[in-house]
Amino acid sequence: MADEPLVLGIETSCDETGVGIVRGHTLLADAVASSVDDHARYGGVVPEIASRAHLEAMVPTIERALTQAGVAARDLDAVAVTAGPGLAGALLVGVSAAKAYAYALGKPLYGVNHLASHICVDQLEHGPLPEPTMALLVSGGHSSLLLAPDITTDVRPLGATIDDAAGEAFDKVARVLGLGFPGGPVIDRLAREGDPRAVRFPRGLTGPRDAPFDFSFSGLKTAVARWVENRRAAGEEVPVADVAASFQEAVTDVLTRKAIRACRSEGVDHLMIGGGVAANSRLRAMAEERCADAGITLRVPRPGLCTDNGAMVAALGAEMVARGRTPSALDLPADSSLPVTEPHVPAAHDHHHPHHGHGH
Ligand code: KG4
Ligand code: ZN
């Protein structure tokens, strides 16, 4: 439909320079340039390297997306960009680029929330999100259960991790096992050859008196590290695939159990899973099985749209336009700790923007 908004989205919150173009709920282009190889030898994302890589990749990636979509920049209805949360310097590159394009083209600018974008991207795959949307958001920096009556204005946390994020746990366990960075994809691959019942690792915060919708993965990470250490100290070989599979089983067991409990408790008949960890094959399979048993419809974007990309930002931007939300001001700040409760950053004169967030 030609009357749906044509929106360009820019994502630079971590190590992926993502540029997406959508028309309403239709994905037209998804261009991603990753600096992950530049970080691998440091065992984690180095902010300065990420910022520099974004700067170098920005214009070529935008041009690639425009070519892929077969549209001209002047045809765009709006420019959307991740305003936060994320690495401050990395965000700044995307926000500056978005401002420049919006200003030069005379189009509205939408500074949007990275986390709400991870949810909204599913509209490109499975059509309009139900309202409210129940979402399990699992990435490198965040793990939350969110209830969103309106993804453009109203996102409510039901629970979140009290220590490590799910993706962070994958990355740390991969380091313990000497598997490199990022850990999620390697563990996912290796676990297929392992026995998920080889080691019974702890399921954090699953006791009857624990917060039902909060997560804790730090104890699990420590348990894996200790188990591996003991093996090595005894001079025994570490069954890496079994450990990877058993660790992955513990994470996905807790995530799916709590997500389904949240659906039941809120009377919601569907579950959306988003963020980099949603690319995990075991999480997808287990969620599929358990949701089917519980009579819950599962919505998970394809793996390439779960990890960071620009299409998700464009998707949320398009929703902002479609619902007539106020654009951001051209002095839009990058906010490394933008709270999950703020799907977008409207112009300052019509919105008080309190800072009560937690870090990335
Ligand atoms: O959403 P994302 O791309 O970036 C952030 O916003 O953090 O998520 C990155 C995280 C990393 O911790 C990475 O190890 C994890 O997602 N990840 C996975 C998989 N692919 C990426 N974790 C488990 N299994 C995967 N297949
Ligand atoms: Zn992300």
Automatic annotation (TrEMBL):
Coiled coil stretches, renumbered: none
GO biological process terms, semicolon-separated: tRNA threonylcarbamoyladenosine modification
Binding site for Fe cation: 114, 118, 308
Binding residues annotated for substrate, in chain numbering: 137-141, 171, 184, 188, 280
Entry's family note: Belongs to the KAE1 / TsaD family.
HAMAP family: TsaD
Ranges of residues in domain Gcp-like: 27-314
Compartments, record wording: Cytoplasm
Domain of life from the UniProt record: Bacteria
Gene responsible for this protein: tsaD
Protein name: tRNA N6-adenosine threonylcarbamoyltransferase
Chief location of this protein within or outside the cell: cytoplasm
Cofactor(s) the record lists: Fe(2+)
Catalysis performed (reactions): L-threonylcarbamoyladenylate + adenosine(37) in tRNA = N(6)-L-threonylcarbamoyladenosine(37) in tRNA + AMP + H(+)
Region of interest (Disordered), ranges: 328-360
GO MF annotation: an example: iron ion binding
Alphabetical UniProt keywords: Acyltransferase, Cytoplasm, Iron, Metal-binding, Transferase, tRNA processing
Role description: Required for the formation of a threonylcarbamoyl group on adenosine at position 37 (t(6)A37) in tRNAs that read codons beginning with adenine. Is involved in the transfer of the threonylcarbamoyl moiety of threonylcarbamoyl-AMP (TC-AMP) to the N6 group of A37, together with TsaE and TsaB. TsaD likely plays a direct catalytic role in this reaction.
Enzyme class: transferase
One GO CC annotation: cytoplasm
Keyword Cytoplasm: yes
EC nos: 2.3.1.234
One protein family per Pfam: TsaD
Bound cofactor: record note: Binds 1 Fe(2+) ion per subunit.
UniProt key word Oxidoreductase: no
